[in-house]
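Second attempt. The first submission of Trans-aconitate 2-methyltransferase had a stray character pasted in from the spreadsheet, which I only caught after the job came back as garbage. Lesson logged: always re-copy from the clean sequence file. Corrected sequence (227 aa) follows.
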Amino acid sequence: MDLLPDDKLERSAVVANCRMNRERDLLGTNGYGRELGLDPLDFLRERLGAGRPAAWLDLCCGTGRALIQAARQVHGEGLDVEIVGVDLVGMFDEPDPRLTCLSLIEASLTTWRPERSFDLVTSVHGLHYVGNKLGLIARACSWLVEDGLLVANLDLTNLKLGDGRPGGRKIVAEMRRAGLQYDRKRRLVACRGMRMVDLPFRYLGADDRAGPNYTGQSAVDSWYEAG
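This time the job returned cleanly.
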């Protein structure tokens, strides 16, 4: 099988044209709250209750619509919250310039690194289009503050091992051994608290011909070799 390295994958029509987060709202039937099982702003407000500022990083944020909605609330309530969204395509909605709490960044998550740590790191259906999914999860865990939270959608059917076997069961076992959590029913991976994650899998490349996953949208298979 011909697998794509991440630089070529990012030029794939499946990745560049993915519609999963293009028009997603913060709340509601198509919102972040429903997909992640938590209201990001409620989570951040609780952090502020401890008397410190808070920060939220959203990976594969699409147009940034949900983040702009959140930033309006942050601005309106005068909350000490920073919101950062990163997306490969950079087709962002135009935010009100008064929303100085918000940064929308066009960048490849293969190479991008933040300049600060975050209380909350999310990715709503973004990992479906990432090549090295496990690598990004591991890096994102290191971007948390000591008691922060990472939560992201992850479909195990898009994780493959080089010998042709499905990789989900073995990979979940190793993620749990590393201190991560996986909810099979909701297809969510989570990490509570900053940690350095070193999973025993070598990334081989990606296949953009995987077809639709449980979302009904075409996704990317990520192939690994067990160490």
